[in-house]
Fold this sequence. Notes:
- By secondary structure, the chain is an alpha/beta fold.
- It contains seven helices and nine strands, in the order ββαβαβααβαβαβββα.
Amino acid sequence: GGGKRVSAILMLPKGAGPFPLVDNIHGCGGLFRPKRKILNPAREDWAKRFVAAGYAVLLPDSYDSRGVREICSYPADKWPVTLIEHLQDVLSSAIWASRQPFTDKERIAVVGWGTGGTAVLRALDPAMRRFHALGIKAAVVIYPGCNKWLENGSNFRPSPMPHIYIGAADDWAHPAACKALADKWGSPITLYPGAYHNFDVPHQKVGVEQTGQGKIHRGTNPAARKAVIKEVMAILRSAFAPA
């Protein structure tokens, strides 16, 4: 968006292709670990899982590309990378991927976590015509911030209809707002009992952390992690199945 060049990581399965493609949109913690250029464990875990299933994976980097490592520690009104910029990256990365020879243009899905999931929800507005024209087969969002689109900008029918996954105990991403938004749209939503933010991250001990929005809980919930992996992989298998 605005002529900004954004970098990304591309992971391809073995074979000649073209492949179904999953566009992975990171959350406020960014794409990398603090030392950079080493993938965030959660993004790496999901990306390898998708590649093993035979899917190409694109991981656009909204933060390093703009000289920022993360935005979790900033108040929402002072984010150095705005939600609109994140949205632009969702749109442009999917459009770019659709033009590549390794991509099966009829089988593209987008998955977003946290702020990335929030941006994905907005991208599903049919008013985003160039994105909508891609015919995205599936959209999955995991612990997004739904309150922004519930309060304003939600008066559209998403296409495709997103699958929303969030911990019922999430004290950062507002599960009640996601439930209200899902009810308004008629979209599927799963709330995992006792699960906090980052419930799908491998081997993260649950603890309290200081963020730009205050203290929150986050960490792995083994039962919810196992369930969401099963659900997301099933959604992609169904979405990518030959007509």
